[in-house]
Design a protein that fits this description.
Blueprint lengths: L44 E6 L2 H17 L3 E6 L4 H10 L4 H7 L2 E5 L12 H18 L3 E6 L7 H12 L1 H4 L4 E8 L5 H10 L2 E4 L2 E4 L6 H4 L4 H38 L5 H16 L3 E7 L3 E8 L10 E3 L4 H7 L4 E3 L11 H6 L3 E9 L2 E10 L9 H34 L6 H16 L3 E8 L4 E7 L11 E3 L5 H7 L2 E4 L11 H4 L5 E7 L6 E8 L9 H34 L6 H16 L3 E6 L8 E6 L18 H6 L5 E3 L11 H6 L3 E9 L2 E10 L9 H35 L5 H16 L3 E8 L4 E7 L11 E3 L5 H7 L3 E3 L11 H4 L5 E7 L6 E8 L9 H62 L6 H28 L9 E4 H11 L1 H7 L2 E4 L4 E4 L1 H17 L7 E9 L2 E8 L31 H11 L4 E6 L3 E9 L5
Organism: Halopelagius longus
EC number: 2.7.13.3
Catalytic activity: ATP + protein L-histidine = ADP + protein N-phospho-L-histidine
Length: 1123
Amino acid sequence: MSKYISNRTDRRDAPAPGNDSGVLRSSAGLCGPARSVEESDNADHFALVYEDRDEQFETVVPFVREGIEAGERCLYIADDNSRDEVVAALRDGGVDVDAAFESGQLSIRTVEETYLRGGEFNLNAVRTLLRTAMEEGLTEYEGFRVTAEETWLVGDEGMQEAFMSCEAHINELLDERAMALCQYDRGKLPPAVIEDVIETHPLLVYDNTVCRNVYYTPPEEYFGPERPERDNERKLQTLVDRTTAKIALETRERYQRRLYETLADPDATFETKIQRLLRLGRERFGLEIGYFTRTQETTFEIVEAVGDHDLIATGVTDSLCDTYCEKLLASPGPVSVADAADVGWTDDPAYERFGLDAFFATTVRVGGSEYGTLCFASETPRERPYTDAERTFLNLMGQWLGYELERRHREQYLRESYEITSDPALDFEEKLGALFDLGCEQFGLELGAMAKVDPDENRFEVEYVSGDHEHFAPGVELPLSETYCTAAVDAGGVESVEEPVEAGYDDISVYEEFDVEAYLGTYIEVEGDDDRTFFFVSERSRDSPFTEDDRTFQRLMGQWVKYELERRQREEFLRRSYEITSDPTLSFDEKVERLLEMGCDWFDLEMGGLNHLPAWDGEFRLERGVGLGVDDDEVLWADPGDGCFCRRTIETDAPVCVADVRETDWTEDPVYRELQMQSYFGTKVTSGTAPYGTLWFGGTEPRDREFSDVERTLLDMIGQWVSYELEREQREHYQQRLCEIMAEPDRSFDEKLQDLFELGCERFDLELGGLARVDPTTDTFEVDAVSGDHEHLTPGAKAPLSETYCQLTVEGGRTADLTDPENYGYGSSLAHDVFGVETYLGTHIDLDNEPDRTFFFVSSEPRDREFTEAERTFHHLMGEWVKYELEQRQRERALKDSNERLEQFAYAASHDLQEPLRMVTSYLRLLEKRYEDALDEDGEEFLEYAVDGAERMRKMIDCLLEYSRIETRGDPFEPVALDAVLDDVREDLQIQIEETDADIAADRLPTVVGDASQLRQVFQNLLENAITYSGDEPPRIHVGAERRGQEFVISVRDEGIGIEPKNQDRVFDVFDRLHSRDEYEGTGIGLALCQRIVERHGGDIWVDSELGEGSTFSFTLPVPEEE
């Protein structure tokens, strides 16, 4: 490249402008002028100005190669390069040099054989030589090309001047089939010679660019006397041309910038942009009126208009006949009229109607179809013709309008389709019908439909239709090959038919019988259901093919239909699954069997099963199966295989599916040999975090399609439910056993603790359970109790707490687990190195007034999974029970000690008080006996009061002693028939009954477990109260019993004086009397004794009463366990 030319982007790969016969015939990626050869008067004569050999051959080689390929005779005159160098360059450039030499199509001559033949340059001889070579070449070949290296001119000014004279006349030698390319080395030839080269060649090739030479001087001028004057004129004209071009370029750029600003304004509406566009066009084209129309078949509507014209205004609607728009639509392209008179329009009805002398307009197309027109006009002629730049500007505006209208049109239909598909008030069929209507409107077709299709069975069944049609109706069946839908199925997506005959469908039913001329449809593969085609048809043929937007919109509607069909399928699957899994009348096994049957139907496989793997290296056992012909709980296959079928499934978390086992190495697996299972679909089932087995489906035939993501999800859902149920059953099983252990009344705490250890070892799959005392302040760990045998963990064994895993529970004050001791820094601890414990689960038990405990389970085997939250919760529950039992034992010991002290105190108090009371009573009796005659009436009364008070005090002391001994001196519990107890009490109260004329009625009373003497005391106290507080009427008493769950409710109802509500709680307080001793006798402790006795029997006692209406005393007793 010249050092005087600035470096710029390499343009060698850019195609040459113009048509196929362009300058240099678009050789070698040269850039050139827009005009073709036909437009150039001297397009046959080129001058190549180069600076190095690479640049030289980049033009020369393609020039020769193009001639060879076009069947032209080529002559190469070499000077600076040798013959071998030229041949090598041509051969490297793709020229078959040997064949060209052999045929005579190519020849290479030297300067000495041509220009300097005879030893010197002779103008006439050279012209004769070239003319002869051209004539000979054109006689035998399609054309003639010559290219010459002109380096021989260096150093000889005389030959330079003579040769330039030859070059100036070379165009006279070349006819229309000849072409010459002269090569000038700019680095070797003087600038003056290069200047002459520029002036004598109409076309230049420089820097890989073909240039139309504005400095070219024709021979008559080059050699004429007025050459200097003409040179000056040409240079001045060149300046004018360049200035004009620059102004035109600046004008074009300015309007294009304003056009872009108008169209890109995000805040402007579409209507506002059209108005600005019309104003900009008026200004750009120098016309008075701008308007945009929407055309129909026979009418037009002016959508927007700017300018002043009586008939051209926004909103005007009129006939399309006799309008300029009609002429525009009838023309093959834009219409540009500068003066109506020049084109004969002044006599046209349109001119008479609108009076427009200048008209510049283009058709606006939307989706390949005519939409309307964009027009600019004036009522006066335009003074200048329309330029290419103006035409381009008009086309840009029309294209933007078409694009924007198409986008708005597309968005409108998308918006409407979204409104339809997202409307919660419409069901699927209603949405489908609305989409059919929308599609018919969008595509200009008559009917929408959806059909079930099966390509393998060649089946087509109409499912939905948008309207009435003689042949298309729901339920109609046809061979798929007799419909256009076969095209959509074959394409696997959207397909259209606009010309049935040309497309080869002239012999199928839908064309011959149904008269369907146009079709647009899409194929929908539906997972878990029949495939569909969603399509639109018309009996009218289309004027234009379906656009890409049409296809995109059809594809979008088809995608929604696919999604909706699959969603409905999924919902149906979930509904059926829920009906099965939530049925309270079905057992777990029955539910699994029904799920397997449903899965076989859904996945189109003939067998399915739930397998259990009790041991990792053991055999799978069939828990439940369908379609297998194998009994439940049998070994499904002796060898579970290695990495195939259920073995592969249980080793991975994701579902495993193989549509065709024959394409894998699974054919070597025993399952394949025993069951001929050629397709398989399975998922892992767990119980908690532990693998349980597999849930699987299979078939003896390969599946015709791969398992889909939806099918994987559905299988995974079934597997999750089975896993959940297994875990729930396991959880409930262990919780029930835990409750049974905790509620066992006949077993001691130590026995229950051992049962708890065994349960935990089983639940957590660990070896040993233990309970230990811990004290962080002294770093003490001492084993209380353990299950199983362990060398170091035995009752009484001690260790530093910090060397055991129990330290984790003490530090955290919660349940803690450890499955990787070394990773948590316990690799060198006593528990790991000496005790050999690899897995630990424990909880801290915080106790008052005695050492804390840790309740734990351990194993010498590492655990391959973390403890689940359910396992930790279960362990926490066990720990809470242990804590409760330890605290209960502590409370019982304290209560026992307290009761013993209370009993000792009560006995001592009773003994110490009884003796003085006996002495007081004895001496009072003695005074009464000895001094009876000496006492007056008051004295005798006072003495009687003293004796009576002492007697009442003795009774109260006896009652208090009895009250304190309810828990400690009672008899052991045994079966007690309450009927017999009531009879004994009646007999004891016989005198009172007779004296008061009392009536005691009783229901049949149950047998309970209790202390007969204490229960007798309860009945006696309650009946005595009922008789005592009966009022003025004879006592009427009823003793009843009823069962309420796991307890009996015994009631004693009377019709006596009753108790005020505010006093009903006081009646059970010790020595709290509601009446004076003058009204009713008693110690005030009878009901308190009843309450204490009932509580000892695990029951409650209460009273329901209304003043003056009587009272009902009720108490509960537990139902014996055997009942």
